[in-house]
Here is the input.
Amino acid sequence: MKDKIISKATEMFLKLGFKSVTMDDIAGEMCISKKTIYKYFKNKELLIEEGTEIIHQKIHHLIDEIITKNYNAIQENFEMRKMFKEMFQSFDHSPVYQLKKHYPEIYEKMMANEIQECSQVFTHNIQKGISEGLYRADTDIQAAVQFYYTLIFSINENTLLEKEAFQLELKALEYHTRAIATPQGVTELLNQLFKSNL
Here is the structure.
């Protein structure tokens, strides 16, 4: 039952907003009593915290799946972007923006985990791109990673509408790639941008 509550609550939080969904709403949607929810979660914040952890795990599982497909480094980034679009395209408001605004402590904890894991993913991607000749060999990997995740997280933290955040993320990805790409990498970037606009 606990897993079902987390699953339904998380779906509702993402679709309707962390702030606006109440324990009554979740109970009503699941046709259970509010008492049943409180048996597993003493407050809404605990439910949100567990829900965001499950989303985090799901995202990183999907990222791992993309990495195992062994795309070139630039296409890999575009495939990850496509995965995020498929996960969040039905939401009007950015979940990260909502979380930061209404539940800053949960947001801070989540971001600490994300920065660590995203740093590893971005570092691996740049190393791979250098070995493929798509990124410049003299790239300062640590600085490039920090610049990129700062850009991406800043967009999600400060952009209310998910659609607008998604468009800005594409510009950030292009900006990041152009900053470290070889001429061969720029050609591949243009190819991926063309495909993403189809």
The chain has one domain: 53-196. The chain has a mean pLDDT of 90. The two ends are 43 Å apart (CA to CA).
